[in-house]
Amino acid sequence: MAVPEQSGGLWSIVYASVGGGMIPAVVSVFLRWRRNLGEQSKDVRDRREKALVDGLGDLSSGQRQYIDRLTTDRDECERRLEALERELSLARDWRWRTELWGRDMRHAAGNARQVVNAMEQAAGKPATGFERLDDPPEERS
Q1: Which of 73, 93, 99, 107 falls between 20 and 30 A from 82, CA-CA?
Q2: How far is the C-alpha of 18 from the C-alpha of 24, rounded, in Å?
Q3: Low-confidence residues of the chain, pLDDT below 70?
Q4: Hey, is 59 helix, strand or coil?
């Protein structure tokens, strides 16, 4: 298979890869090219993909299906990755909220213990040790 004279760069790699029967090289070039288009608008990306696929006219239908399946699989993986990143963000947010809630509850419990002890002392009774029963062992004094 001859490489057209006016083509160069990507096309020469694609034609050389197809001519040599190296489908993984074609797929690799295609996926790398597609990844680089990520920041470009969808219509520009679609036009360039169509041009690349049209340029791969010498591929068999099985080879085209293989490339299409890889492209579709990659798109699905990107969608799943975005969903996982959103879930991770939510999980971090809930963990942070839970830690704050736990800290607030410990603070409120400490305030309640102080109020009970102050009321008992004001009534002339000794403190019941309420704070020592509820505190974790490392916080007991």
Answers
A1: 99
A2: 9
A3: 1-45, 48, 51-60, 64, 126-141
A4: coil
The Cα–Cα gap between 22 and 19 comes to 8
**Do 13 and 29 contact (CB within 8 A), yes or no?**
yes
CA separation for the pair 86, 80 (Å, rounded):
10
Q: Is the pTM of this model over 0.70?
A: no
Largest Cα–Cα separation, the chain? 104
User: 14: how many CB neighbours lie within 10 A of its CB?
Assistant: 22
CA distances from 62 to 59, 68, 71 (A): 8, 10, 14
Give the integer Cα–Cα distance in Å for 68 and 34.
12
